[in-house]
Amino acid sequence: MGEFEQLVLLALLRLDNRAYGMEVREEIERRTGREVSYGAVYTALDRLERKAFVSHELGEATPERGGRAKKFFRVEPAGRDALREVRRALGVMWDGVSV
Amino acid sequence: MLARLVPPAQRDAVLGDAEEEFRRRAVWDGDAAARRWYRGQAVRSVLPALAHLARSAHEAWSSEGEVERMGAWMKDMQLAFRALRRRPGFSVTVLVTLALGVGATTALFGIYRTVFLEPIPLPRSDELMVVMEQGAFGCCGPASGPDYVDWVERNRSFQALALLNPSGFTLTSTGEPERLSGVWATANVFEMLGVSPLMGRTLLPEDEEAPGAVVVSWRMWQNQLGGGSDVVGSTIQLNGETVTVVGVMPEGFDVPSPWAQYGTYRLYLPFQRERLEGNRGSHGWPVIGRLAEGATKESAQADMDYIMRELADEYPQTNADRSAKVFTVHEYLFGQVGGQLRVILGAAALVLLIACGNVAGLLLARAAGRETELSVRAALGASRRAMVRLLFSEALLLALVGGVLGLVLSFVAIDGFKALLPPTIPRIDQIRVDAWALAFALGASAFTALVFGMVPALLASRADLASSVKEGGYATLAPAKERLRNAFIVGQIALGLVLANGAALLVRSYSALRSQDFGFSTDGVMTMSLSPGGPRYEEGNALNAYYDQVLERVAAIPGVAGVGTISRLPLFGGSNGQVWVEGTPPRQNAGEGPLVEVTSVNGGYFDAMGIPLLRGRLLQPEDSVAAAIGVVINQRFADIAWPDQDPLGKRFSFEDSPPNWITVVGVVGDVRQWGPEQAPQAQMYAPFARGWTTGSYLTVRTDGDPAALVPEIRRAVLEADPAQPPTDVRTMGERVDRTFAQRRFYTTLIALFAAAALFLAAAGVYGTVSYFVARRIRELGIRMALGAAATGIVGLVIRRAVRLAFWGVGIGLVGVWASTRVLEGLVYGIGAVDPLTIAGGCVAMSLVAVVASLVPAGRAMSVSPVLALRSE
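The joint structure predicted for all components is written out below.
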């Protein structure tokens, strides 16, 4: 799992595990300070969904969105497992290393 | 753009998010910042989108079990990518050249498609025709009522013919008085166009018997009438009369009218049938029709020819020498602009071609630099096919990336072009880069890759082992390749000459047009349209009293130096009739005699416009007395009707039996009435009080800035009648400028393209000559060592450039000759074949070649023999 995919999963979890693209993008931007494009967010979400790490449901369509529905994503148990695994692996590897 | 970059499955969500955030940012940070952010989002979404595309493509192919073949291609692509990354200078040059070429062409294609290729948004719009009459004035004028009635009765080619009378209306029932454009049309027009109303009904035949019904457009309903569902049956005040809204047309509907291609009608009113019984010789109304089943434009034309011949026999007084002409609505509305856009698009395509030539030249030179590598590959057993594939992959990769960049650029360019486009271009608001433009960009890139990648790839793959070993690993082009590269340069110079010649002709035409004397002065002149109407003006003298008041009040404003009115402003057309000059033999019919423009003036019009009085006097109130009508004519009329005589006191008449004599009391200077490109016509200025013309423009000459006086002038006009606001307020200078907008647009673009072509051709020559110098550096070094003069070396190099230029110019002349037909309709004041311009173009192209070779020549001159020999 790539770094950006981890950021996306963590952002979803931070947002009470139910958020749509705009919120995810803002959360990552606000916390990491790097500029993120919708193209990148949705490409990552698409990849994560194929791996069954996240799932989505459609929300309401409001006029300020030009009548387009929101797509709410949530992290699935497989996604949480994968995150935990990454964290464990990183922890093991970091142990005793200083850079 | 964002919409096209995002994969379909995510499109809605991404666009929704982006739009939501855009709105929020617009509120917080302002519109400009929000737009900047949005553009940034779009640009940064390019890479993820491409990655996504590549992955899906890869998955699709893998599933078909072609992994192996694709694997080889992918590997070539990877190799190509690495190779290109190693030579960033080369890659960037090629990509920028391609992106510019593809970007400009794609943007222009987008404009051309929306403006010209899109059909009119009406059912079976290819069956819709415009029928115009032509007579002594040429093509094309509107029909008369009785002619229209006969057309309807006698024709076999049209399902229906509708007559239109476009007009302006003052709406007074909804607050501030407002001028709206509308059209009086025969009731059959809606059924003929095949569009049902959104609400209520359209016009009925009985509406033609008595006025009082109006069908409104969707925009009128939304903007002026509140958009409520109870609008049908409500009443509004138009020109002071009460009319009932009987229907609302759907969004986007409009009656295509030959005179309103740039505007839209808000109001559709019933043409009153009694008006059809007027004078057969008075032409005022354009006609549109839908072809009957099985009829074609040609058969309809033949049918109309026959009818017009019958009418000429029956009514020789009015119809001798008159004919009718049938156009498709599309060609009538968009034909001219389509022609101009095609020229621009053609110019852009030439630039793309020149850019391709450059890229091909670069690829060839690069292939030469890799001859050793290729020989080694061949020696190690690479098949020719594999090598072609490798070389072609590079070209393909460059073309694809260049194409994508070009596409991105076209989104920017189309906004730029839109800002430059004159407002007279129809459908300007709908212009966008759409799927067609996308396909066009893709096609253009594929074409580039195929033609200009394949040829060098094929040639270069014919690596000659022996020669490359003999050269000691030094890169050269085999003669065939060198000839090819020279041919590319020659082609670029030739195309460059064609473009430069066209651009020079257009620029010269433009400045010739701008600098000519129109016969009036625009300095400090403000103009606005007045159109008093309604019951108040129906009785006797009310209209004259209104204008007297307006003129008096405006003249009293401090800073106003002169004020008057005219029925039609100069440069903006008019109406005309043929006259019988007293003392010449009686006419056989009204279609004989000099054609005279009829205009009515009031107040100090000539002073306000700076039109000089040449003889006699200006109009006085007694000139409008019916028994002895006096008019002012222009010099041209005097020259035609009374050559070598004093025109003062001479008489002429529009009618024959009995004649209604009009006396010439003064002669003024000629004015271009029908646009900057039309020579002055014979013209007469009648006293406004005669009521011969409708419509009028107030012209005010001011001492200072005319715009500063607008509020006061407006107030003065409203004091005369609060229900009649002046409209179309512009300085005369602005109006003149607008008549040039379209010409300025295509002249600017073609000049830009010509500049790009010159630059690219220069780059091409520079590249070739540099390569020539680099390749022969050893030889040049030896020559220097043996005592050759520096000037001789320079001469050697420059001769090479001159030879290329010579061939390029020679072939270019053929192209110039071929381009004259395209240019003929666009140039003014000079011929499409102008020896001076052509000679200038030849010199310019040769100079470009020589100047571009100066740097490599200088390099050749400073070759140190020692270094040159050491490069062995």
